[in-house]
Amino acid sequence: SFCPRRSSRACRALSRNSALDDWAAVRIQALVRRFLCRCRLQRKIRSEVDDFFHPSGPAKKTALSLFKISRKLLFIFKLPQDKERFEKLCRCILSSMEAESDPKVWYVSLALSKELTLLWIQQVKDVLWICCEFLKLLKPDILQDSKLVNLHLTMLVTFTDTSTWKILQGKGEALRHAMNHICANIMGHLNQKGFYSVLQILLTNGLARSQPAFSKGTLTAAFSLALRPVVAAHFSDNLLRSFLIHIMSVPAIMSHLAALTPERLAVMESQDLLRKFLLFLSREEQCRDVCVCLEGSHTLCLLGNLVYLGSLNEKVLQEEMGPFVSVLTHMLCYCQKYVSQKKSNLTHWHPVLGWFSQTVDYGLNESMPLLSKQLQHLWGAPMIRLLFSDVLSKKLLESQEAARQPPPASSPHSSLPVKSLFRRAFQKSTSVRNILKPIGGKRVDSAEVQKVCSICVLYQMALTTLTQIRLQILTGLTYLDDLLPKLWALICELGPQGGLKVFLECLNHHTEESKRLLAMLMLFCDCSRHLITILDDIEVYEEQVSFKLEELVTISSFLNSFVFKMIWDG
């Protein structure tokens, strides 16, 4: 009885295996047939598309026929085999938009069809996003690619704004409001998909080099596209953030705009964008968020663009000086955290920052000279005059007594060159203005002092962060002969008894206010040391550039006492 039972179990198992084999065979056949069917359909559709765009195809391509062939192409679209077909589709769509007085040809006319409106909008979104995908891959410095960049940018420019739509001319003007909503819908879709990231890649590929790879028209189109979502959203925080991170961080983009298409800068000025940027970034958490997203190299690029834009908009800087100084200080402070004094396994070389502990984008190296030129505006004479206007506007009192003193009688030893030099020097130093000495009298918490302290913190931060251009910064700060003596005059006026006691107290109180006051003294010392080392004897003793000899003696005495007490008190 055992053998028959065993035999029946084997038969049932064999039957089950046979059924599984049959199912597997059917499944494989179905998959193969589906694959072959799909291949046949794709070949058929591609053949239809090729016939449609062939010179022997329909001479008059209506909007409806263009819509239908687009749906078919998008259904089977695949790179790289459909690349040329898509280019022909884009050219055909743009050509239809240029047709004269024939609504049936205008591709955009399908937006007025109740049955096709939603399908048409979705098709436009799909087509434009494929254009974006191409823009990420194209190299603007290659001639053939630059032509395709222009093609895809033209598609995006055409269907994100209604200004060129002929269907809205004349009687069609009543439809403009509805069409603007459609454009806003399309731009919103592109933004969600990563439109600004695409523009950042494109602009960086074209501009992060010594000579831009873009023509005026290409750069105008790309930057106009970048501005449209921000303006359409009425400068919402979300889109301002995207614009700052992806567009304003492109190396020296403001300089390239000024050189190639200054009209775009005029548009930015008309929209008051610099003020909006500064007010957005003046909120510390938002500034930190932007810096963290960008990291050091690109934060420096954003800083350079803001400085350059500020140099072109002095009126805005005068009105928003506080936010401007605060924003630049925060950005430099973020970069400074990663600046290292020496080479190590964790550092990378940066042409402006020196040894840097974050990853450096070496693709930006070509644009570093332009970035440095942008940053130079921060310590250029116009910016120094603007930021230190309160200090520079003060007049140093002239000496009355010295003016009445008769010249000293000549001595037999006055012919000696060194003694003669010193004698003339001291005569001159007492005859022009009062010698500046620590006298006190100005409250350290006054608005004027706090404003100057903030500016000194900014420049002190620049000196310690931008290590490779430190000498440039010091040279710029000492360019104006009257800045240092007037800054010394302010230091002399601090506190009830003069600056020394105030600064000694700062050493014992590790507060933000103390650090800001010390930054003023440190900046003054750094600049004075730089100035004195580059002046020759005649400039120091006879011409007495910036300082009178008695003032140098006073400054030396002040600093000697300061250093002694600092060491003595530990």
TrEMBL record:
PROSITE patterns: IQ (PS50096). GO terms for molecular function: ubiquitin protein ligase activity. Keywords: Transferase. Its EC number is 2.3.2.26. InterPro entries: E3A/B/C-like (IPR044611). It catalyses: S-ubiquitinyl-[E2 ubiquitin-conjugating enzyme]-L-cysteine + [acceptor protein]-L-lysine = [E2 ubiquitin-conjugating enzyme]-L-cysteine + N(6)-ubiquitinyl-[acceptor protein]-L-lysine. One of its GO terms (biological process) is protein polyubiquitination. It is an enzyme of class 2 (transferase). Signal peptide: none annotated. This is HECT-type E3 ubiquitin transferase. It comes from Micrurus corallinus (Brazilian coral snake).
